[in-house]
Amino acid sequence: MTFQETTDIPGLDLTDLRLNGFKVYALPASTEVPPVKAGRRDFYKMGLVNGDMTIHYGGQLLDIKGPVLIFINPRGPHSFVRRLNRTSGYSCIFTETFISGRELQYSPLFRVGDNPVIPLNTEQSDFMTGLFEKILAVYNGDYLHKGELIKSCITLIIHEAIRIQPAQHVVPVRNGIHRIVHLFIDLLERQFPIERSSEPLGLRTAQDYAGQLSIHVNYLNRAVKEVTGKPTSAHIAARIIAEAKALLQHSDWSVAEIAYALGFEYPAYFNNYFKRLTGITPNVFRKV
C-alpha cells in the first residue's frame, strides 16, 4: 500500500525520521507555501505555530491563529494543512517507538476526536519556543545522547500542554456506565488504522465489542446510548466509513482490497454500505 508523501513540506527530510524515529525542523516563514498533502502515517506530529493556518483533521475544518500548539495523532485521518498567511514556528515528528507508545495512546492531547489545537498566551509561547529551539539545537548538534535529551524535551512539552489546557472532550469515568463507554471508544480506536489487507478488521458489530469487553451486548448498547446519545452501531459505522475514506484517498488499494480489509465478505456489500452512509459509491468518492 502506498500512502501520499509529505515531501512537499520545505525543510523536511523523512530519511532521518526513518533512521532515528524523530525529526525536528523550523517552519518556513513564507507566504508562497503551497497546500500540503499530509496523508496518514505511523508517526505523531507536534508543532508550535505562530500565524494563520487551516487544518483538515478527523473530519474537522479548523481555522487557527497562532501562537498555538498542535498535536496530531496518526490514527485520525488528516487530509492536508494549508498555510494562509506568513507563519513561523517549529514542528516535531516522532514514531510510537521513539516515545512510549502507551504514553501517547493514553495522552489526552493525542486522543482522536478531540480538538488538536491549544492556544498560547505570550508567556506560554515564549516558553514553548525555547523548548523547540533547544530540541532543534540538540538535534543538529553532536551530543552523544541527543535522542534521550530530545525525548525529555518532548515529554516536558506534552505535560506543559496538558497543564495549560486539559482535554475538553474526554468522557469522565465517573461510574460503571462511563467506564464501559470509555473502554468501548478506546477499543474502537485501537482497531485502526488498517495497515494490511491481509489483516482485516476483526471487530465490526456491537456484539463483537461486547464480547471483547466481556459484557452483554444489551448493556453495552444502553451505556453507549445513554452517555453519547448515539447507538453503538452508529459509532462503529462512522469509524469504518472514516477509515474507508482515508484508504480511498491515501492508498493505492483497489476497492475490493479495501472492502476485504474492512471485514466485508464481498465488495458489493461494501459498495452498498458506503453508498448508504455517504450517498455516493467508493469509486465516485475516490475520483472527487
From TrEMBL:
What the entry lists under Pfam families is as follows:
HTH_18 (PF12833)
Q: Does the keyword DNA-binding apply?
A: yes
Q: Where is the HTH araC/xylS-type domain?
A: 178-288
**Entry-linked SUPFAM superfamilies:** Homeodomain-like
Please give the InterPro entries that the UniProt record associates with this protein. Homeodomain-like_sf, HTH_AraC, Tscrpt_reg_AraC-type_HTH
Please tell me whether the keyword Transcription is annotated for this protein: yes
Q: Which UniProt keywords apply?
A: DNA-binding, Transcription, Transcription regulation
The entry's protein name is Helix-turn-helix domain-containing protein
Organism (species) = Chitinophaga rhizophila
